[in-house]
Amino acid sequence: MPRRHLRVTGDPESPLGVALRALRTELGVPAGFPPDVLAEAERAARAPTVASYDSYDGYDETDIPFFTIAPPGSSDLDQALHLSRRTDGHGGHGGYRVRYAVADIAAFVAPGSALDAETHRRVTTLYFPDGTVPLHPPRLSEDAAGLLPERTRPALLWTVDLDADGRVRATDVHRALVRSRARLSHEDVRKQIDTGTAGEPVALLAEIGRLRERLEVERGGVSLTVPEQEIVERNREYALTYRAPLPTEGWHAQISLLTGMAAADLMLAHGTGVLRTLPAAPRGDVGRLRRTATALHVDWPHHVSYARLVRSLDPHEPRHAAFLLECTTLLRGAGYTVFRNGALPDITTHSAVAAPYAHCTAPLRRLVDRYTAEICLAAAAGGEIPDWVLAALDALPGEMAEGTRRADAVERACVDIVEAALLRDRVGDVFDGYVVDLAERRPTVGTVQLETPTIVGRVEGGGEELPLGERLRVRLTRADLTPTDPEAAKVLFAPA
């Protein structure tokens, strides 16, 4: 599910660049990998620990022309896909076959090794506007384990057969050797589809993606088209722009969602697994989002559902883009739910997906995916789950919660720094805003959403109670990229 995408362009030695580097130290983000971990990664890159390239469980699927789709500059390629039509036995349209190859990081990480311990310490790749802090050493995530073009790689090969309406008819997953033929960007795919030059495996992305989007609407799911925020620096001044996602990004995301739903179904049928679950959003969170909509002049009639509203928004429009970014706050109640031996949990669904769902398609960037992969392999083959997976299951939700907390802290801190950079020359200026939230038991402290620029900041009313849900003119009193007190708000407003 989506997170905020922040990107900074400009001088890395600018105040913003320096502040982002200092943030890594402030948050205790690992600077690099220990020597023993790097040594293990190098050995594993030369000789994978699970199986050899000569005999990968008897499955050699290198004749399938897989391709990857990733943003330009992405180096950790987790997935490759191939799409085709199926016939009904009489030459007619029998639906589709989705083949989705996912990097097999378990072929490189030995249970109980120093590398394994390091991944449990890091849990996830961390994303900063000016770079990433990876879960695995780059020798693996950006090289030996990644699904790079024209390289034979070990993978988990998902095969999901769909009917003509895009509904799942059969699922299989097994280990296989695969070989990607092309590395495409979303813009490459868009151009090929728009100009009619795409071959069938690429062209079908639009056809299958639209079918899966319709089914998402039918079951009540919501996919956020979260725009990317770009902070452009010129002559030490900053400007905020939004990049709306392309339709191809939504279609590609549907293939990943399809795989995660298939994984959840496999594990539920097997009786043991790890689900990504999300209860329905609390009314208070939805209420806050409604106040944000009012502040940004996004029309949200009371008879219109959240799902319907989100689908009506245009991420090219800055106010809609800002609102979509705030919608990600409704996803922060998500967690990981372990179940064993057929004892299913009370909650098995993810409310935004509106179905059971599991994380399994980003193993180079997320720890839990390595474990769901092994459970799904056992479930599909009717075999036993490896002992090292079972031994780690109970601790996984806590580890993933801590990793998610760290990633959320990075995201919040990066947003704070970026907003401080945008406003640092406007201390004393007055802005029109809207009070969208109040601190618990402290009605004089709250959150204000500015109309322009579309920034969210802390507001302190002194001795006055702030008017929740109402318009308020506020004065910027602080915009400090690196405050002396790390706990202090980097951007602060007061009623004007």
What does this structure look like?
This protein is an alpha+beta fold. The protein is 35% helix and 25% strand. It has 13 helices and 17 strands. The strands form five sheets. Strands 2-8-7-4-3 form a five-stranded mixed beta sheet. Strand 7 (152-162) and strand 8 form a beta hairpin. It is globular, with a radius of gyration of 24 Å. The mean pLDDT is 90.
Strand residues, percent = 25-35%
Strand runs, count: 17
Q: On the 0-100 scale, what is the average pLDDT?
A: 90
State the shape: globular
Strand order of the largest sheet: 2-8-7-4-3
* Intertermini distance: 38 Å
Structural class: alpha+beta
Any idea what the radius of gyration is?
24 Å
Which regions contain 5 or more consecutive residues with pLDDT less than 50?
none
Write down the secondary-structure element order.
EHHEEEHEEHEEHHEEHEHHHEHHHEEEEE
**How many H/I helices?**
13
